[in-house]
Amino acid sequence: MLKLISVRLVAMAVGLVFALAVLWALVIGLINLATEEQAGHIPYEQPKDLSWSFDGPFGKWDQQQLQRGLKVYDEVCAACHSLKFVAFRDLEQLGYSEAQVKAYAAAKQVPGIDPNTGEATMRPGLPTDYFPSPYPNNVAAAAANNNAIPPDLSLMTKARGDGVNYVASLLTGYQEPSAELLEHHPEAAPGPGLHHNPYFPNLNLAMAPPLTTDGQVTYDDGTEATIEQMSTDVAAFLAWTAEPSMIKRKQTGWPVMIFLLFATILAYMSKKQIWAAVKPKK
User: Which residues partner with 112 through β-bridges?
Assistant: First the structure.
C-alpha cells in the first residue's frame, strides 16, 4: 500500500513539474513577444493562402504546371540559384522522355575532369549529373549579388514556413514601402542595393525582382505567362524539387491507414474473444 502511494506521489510530482515547465515557457514567450512589440519590431506580411493541385490527401502533381515551373527556373532563376539536389534524370518524373532529358542535360555545362590532363574543365551534362551551380564558389556568388549568397532552391519550400505559398508571395510582393510603415519604422527603408518586400521577414532583401513583366517566359503549352502565373508555376516546381515523392507518400498513406484500422479492430475482437472466459461476470 505504501509503495503504491509513493508511486502515485512521484507521478503527481512529475506531472506538476511538467505543467510548471509548460507554464513557464508560455510566460517567457509572451514576455518576449511583448518586448519585441515594445522595441518596435517591424511587422511583415504572412504568405497568401493559394490553392495548389497537390494540396490535401488526394492531391496530385499538375505535370504541365511543373514543366512551366522548370522553364521559369531555367530562364530566370538559374542565373543566380542552384538546384544541387536535383539530377537531370529526375525530370522524367515531370513527363519528359529519356531522349528529351538527355538533350536537356547535354545543353548544360557541368564541371568535369579532362581525361588527358586531369585538369578541371567543363563538359556537356549527362542525365546522371545534377543541376550545376551558376557560380564557381561562394565568394564569386557574393561578389555578384551585393555580398549576399543566393541560396540553393532544392529544398526552399521545406526550409521556409508555408514554403510554397511563401515563394509565390515573395516573387509577386516587391513594392515600395508605404508611407505609414516608414513613419512608424523608418529603419524599414531599403538601403543601397536592397529591395523592399513585405513577405520577407527582414522586409528588405538583396535579390532584385526576378519576375518583372508579363511574357518574360514563353510557355510551350500556350499558357499566358503573367507574373502571377510564373510565380505560382515556379513555386509548384520547387515544391516538387523539395519532395518529389509527396504524391506517392500520400497514396501510400491510405492503404496503411486502412490496414491499421483493420488491425486495430481485429486486435480488439481477439482480445474480447481471448479474455471472455476469464472476465468476472457481474
Answer: 121
